[in-house]
Amino acid sequence: PTTFFLQRRYRAEFAPRRTKYRKAHKGRVPVRIGGSTKGNTIAFGSFGLRVKDGVRLSSAQLTAAHTVIKRKIKVIKGSQVWMRVFPDIPVTSKGNETRMGKGKGSFEYYACRVPMNKILFEIGGGNIRREVAKEALRLASDRLPVKTEFVDK
Predict the structure, then answer these.
(1) Which of 11, 87, 135, 151 has the fewest C-beta atoms lying within 10 Å of its C-beta?
(2) Which keywords, in A-to-Z order, does the entry hold (predicted)?
(3) Cβ–Cβ under 8 Å, residues 101 and 147
(4) Considering the entire predicted model, what is its pTM?
(5) Backbone dihedral angles phi then psi of residue 79, each to the nearest 5 degrees
(6) What domains lie within the chain, and their CATH numbers?
(7) What is the pLDDT of residue 2?
C-alpha cells in the first residue's frame, strides 16, 4: 500500500492535491541545450506571457499573477486563462544559524522549475483585444521575479 502525503494547501494557492513524497531534492532549473522547444509556443489562447530566463517560481507568485489576469479579463465575456506550468515541487528550508545535521528542513511552499522561453500564461476567447490582453499580462509580469515578454499567435 502506497501512502500519499498532503502538505499545507490553501484554497487560494496552487498546490498538488496529493503527493507521493513529502520532500524533494532541490534540482536545477532545466537549461535546454538539445534544442527542445516544448511549451515555447502558444497552444490554447491567442496571447501569452513568455519567460526570458530560467527561474523557479513559487505557488504564491503564480497565484498572484493568475489572479490579476483573471480580474483584468473578467469583463470580457467568454475570455479564458490557461496556466502552462504547475507548482508541484515541495521546497524545504532550515532555520538560520542551525547546526549541521538533524535532517532536511521542514516544508515551506510549492514551486515549479521553469526553463527559459517557456510560456507561463495564455489568454484568449471572447474576441479579446490585443491591448486588453497586453495590459493584463503586463500586470501579471509585474508580480513575477523574472523578465517576461508578450507574445501572440
Answers:
(1) 11
(2) Ribonucleoprotein, Ribosomal protein
(3) no
(4) 0.89
(5) -80, 150
(6) 47-94+104-152 (3.90.1170.10)
(7) 63
The pLDDT score that the predictor gives to residue 143 is 97
Alpha-carbon distance of 127 to 37, in angstroms, equals 28
CA distance 114 to 29: 6
Query: Which residue type sits at 30?
Result: P
How distant is the alpha carbon of residue 117 from its chain centre?
Answer: 13
Please, are residues 52 and 148 in contact by the beta-carbon 8 Å criterion? yes
Cell numbers found for residue 135: 495590459
Regions of the chain with pLDDT less than 70: 1-11
Three cell numbers at 130?
Answer: 490585443
* 128 and 76 Cβ atoms separated by less than 8 Å: yes
Question: How many alpha carbons fall within 13 Å on the CB side of residue 140?
Answer: 31
- In the sheet where 80-83 sits, what is the strand order? 80-83, 119-124, 47-51, 148-152
pLDDT at 153: 87
Residue 7 is predicted with a pLDDT of 59
Quick check: 42 and 118 in contact, CB under 8 A?
no
d(CA 11, CA 128) in angstroms, rounded, equals: 28
